[in-house]
Predict the structure.
Amino acid sequence: AARHRVLVVGGGTAGIATAARLRRAGITDIAVIEPSDDHWYQPLWTLVGGGQASLDETRRAEEKLIPEGVRWIRAAATAVDPDAQTVTTDRGSVVGYDYLVLATGLQLDWDGVPGLADAVGHGAVSSNYSPRYAPYTWELIRNMRSGTAIFTQPAGPIKCAGAPQKIAYIASDYWRRQGLLDKIRVVLVLPGDSMFGIASWRQTLEGVAARYGIEVRLSSEMTALDGPSHKATIVNNATGAEEILDFDMLHAVPPQRAPGWVAASPLANPASPFGYVEVDKHTLQHRRYPNVFALGDVADLPTSKTGAAVRKQAPVLVANLVAEMRGVGKRKSYDGYSSCPFVTARDRMMLAEFDYELEPSPTIPVIDTTKDRRDMWLLKRYGLPAMYWHGMVKGRI
Ligand code: FAD
């Protein structure tokens, strides 16, 4: 059976950034297990759904991103045995490792809301969370003239927790510019008891929602969807009240959790209801298996799951993995940095950056990012994608 010094499971944002950095650190005999021919830059899917970016811009061939000198195993992992130090794939192969990096991302649970799996992608129901549907979101927004538009966020941790709100603002801004917003009722369903966990940004978001006349339902989630008859059941978890809303378009975000085989493995945190991998929140090293590390969406870390967080996690993980391998070297610590770029209009963005302490943690301190700004929107639309393709996946930043 094949065996590698370092085996990375997942060739998405976290897996590729990690593999590239390991190569730069001079590590050899690395393999990446990844079944997909496509590599996606998901943050732009919000702008695909908002009619401001093409899906093509968000995709690259995986083949081009696997760093030189790294072996690509084109398969999906189906099980891991951390005692035997092996990973099994759907091709029936068993791959051994000395060190393992889990970077599988999370799993979208379309069946988590009854009716959603059948409804999404047609009949006025869309979701920017899949490249299959994001272009359809824009079709719905563009063709809407009047009626009710619902935007939902599920309970539980999700990747880019701002994304369910952003598309509601982009849509409302478009309808306002078309002179249609007066005829469209916009309902935003959020599971939390406020629009955002940190006060300075919360106030700006409340102002944005009020400016568009959006009805915000807090402590609420969609519990069922009847696609053919265009009805969504919304439950307020604080009061238990249930209402059934008729809609003319619905943007849904599915519930999310760790891939089933990860959740079922000994590497999952038994205390994580979503099956995420139990790593030390500062070192990203597994708490029970020191030769295992995890980062990105699949890691059980008490911060927002974003690509921005991965950018700060990858250098920490690689430094600690290399120190573990060599028995010497400086260890690094991850402070929980994550960021949430709230697009609030066609040309405005508010960048919320914070850490485990929920302290604002600005990259550029002189800019007041508690307000939505045009320069920040340009960063989101053009700056960050360029940084991603030229820097992050090459292990440079
Ligand atoms: P991914 O990038 O999802 O990669 C996981 C990889 O693992 C995939 O390539 C997958 O094919 C592979 N994989 C899955 N299962 C297996 C298996 N069994 N075996 C092998 N490989 C497997 N982040 C931001 O920073 N800013 C934003 O504005 C932002 N907006 C977003 C908007 C949307 C609509 C979405 C969906 C996400 C957004 N994100 C944003 C989040 C960001 O995309 C993720 O946090 C980031 O991609 C996480 O990286 P990852 O490598 O953990 O997961």
